[in-house]
């Protein structure tokens, strides 16, 4: 029963992380305009994400524009896009496999060992999804930091970390933690003892 609860905890952690991965991919606040310069007076805040750039005015009006060309984007944006999409797909497949392999479901109850291995496979997919998210977010953050501290970058054109990066780091942590719980919930079956228990009654009958 404790093992089943451990699986449920891991699954819901990974599921919450996977939903956060989707939110991170869709959010446009991967980087936001910095106000670190002297005497900067502006009523517009600029945001950029993987799919669009937005401008937020002091009146509360937000205008967003989708990137016109995929090939004209920087390499780190294209790579982060690909990694986040892969993470979403891996998380989706991992969610389905984990549900099939969990003890609280009735699928495959006749073979608990294979069922537990299926759950471990789902946990491994969640681990890969979290790892892809961690790489994408960290790579993007590294590029933002590099441009911010680059002396050739104008002060008025510098960007800082957006809220989407912090959501992405939290999503990667939750997904990897939940996947680890699912991977650690696999019971160790003593097949030799089971075979002895199953074969002992039949041997006694033959002797009688």
UniProtKB/TrEMBL annotation:
<dbReference type="InterPro" id="IPR017974">
    <property type="entry name" value="Claudin_CS"/>
</dbReference>
<dbReference type="InterPro" id="IPR006187">
    <property type="entry name" value="Claudin"/>
</dbReference>
<dbReference type="GO" id="GO:0005886">
    <property type="term" value="C:plasma membrane"/>
</dbReference>
<feature type="transmembrane region" description="Helical">
    <location>
        <begin position="82"/>
        <end position="102"/>
    </location>
</feature>
<keyword id="KW-0472">Membrane</keyword>
<protein>
    <recommendedName>
        <fullName>Claudin</fullName>
    </recommendedName>
</protein>
<dbReference type="Pfam" id="PF00822">
    <property type="entry name" value="PMP22_Claudin"/>
</dbReference>
<dbReference type="GO" id="GO:0005923">
    <property type="term" value="C:bicellular tight junction"/>
</dbReference>
<keyword id="KW-0812">Transmembrane</keyword>
<dbReference type="GO" id="GO:0005198">
    <property type="term" value="F:structural molecule activity"/>
</dbReference>
<comment type="function">
    <text>Claudins function as major constituents of the tight junction complexes that regulate the permeability of epithelia.</text>
</comment>
<keyword id="KW-0965">Cell junction</keyword>
<keyword id="KW-1003">Cell membrane</keyword>
<keyword id="KW-1133">Transmembrane helix</keyword>
<feature type="transmembrane region" description="Helical">
    <location>
        <begin position="6"/>
        <end position="27"/>
    </location>
</feature>
<comment type="similarity">
    <text>Belongs to the claudin family.</text>
</comment>
<dbReference type="InterPro" id="IPR004031">
    <property type="entry name" value="PMP22/EMP/MP20/Claudin"/>
</dbReference>
<feature type="transmembrane region" description="Helical">
    <location>
        <begin position="122"/>
        <end position="141"/>
    </location>
</feature>
<feature type="transmembrane region" description="Helical">
    <location>
        <begin position="161"/>
        <end position="182"/>
    </location>
</feature>
<keyword id="KW-0796">Tight junction</keyword>
């Amino acid at each position: 029963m404790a093992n089943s609860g451990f699986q449920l905890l891991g699954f819901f952690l990974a599921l919450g992380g996977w939903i956060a991965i989707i939110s991170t991919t869709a959010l446009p606040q991967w980087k936001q305009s910095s106000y670190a310069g002297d005497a900067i007076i502006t009523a517009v805040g600029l945001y950029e994400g993987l799919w669009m750039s937005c401008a937020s005015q002091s009146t509360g009006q937000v205008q967003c524009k989708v990137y016109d060309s995929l090939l004209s984007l920087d390499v780190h944006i294209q790579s982060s896009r690909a990694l986040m999409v892969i993470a979403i797909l891996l998380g989706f497949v991992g969610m389905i496999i984990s549900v099939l392999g969990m003890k609280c479901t009735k699928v495959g109850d006749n073979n608990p060992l294979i069922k537990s291995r299926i759950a471990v496979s789902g946990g491994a997919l969640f681990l890969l999804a979290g790892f892809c998210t961690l790489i994408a977010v960290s790579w993007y953050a590294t590029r933002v930091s590099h441009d911010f501290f680059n002396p050739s970058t104008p002060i008025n054109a510098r960007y800082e970390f957006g809220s989407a990066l912090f959501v992405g780091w939290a999503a990667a942590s939750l997904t990897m933690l939940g996947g680890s719980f699912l991977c650690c919930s696999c019971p160790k079956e003593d097949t030799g003892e089971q075979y002895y228990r199953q074969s002992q009654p039949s041997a006694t009958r033959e002797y009688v």
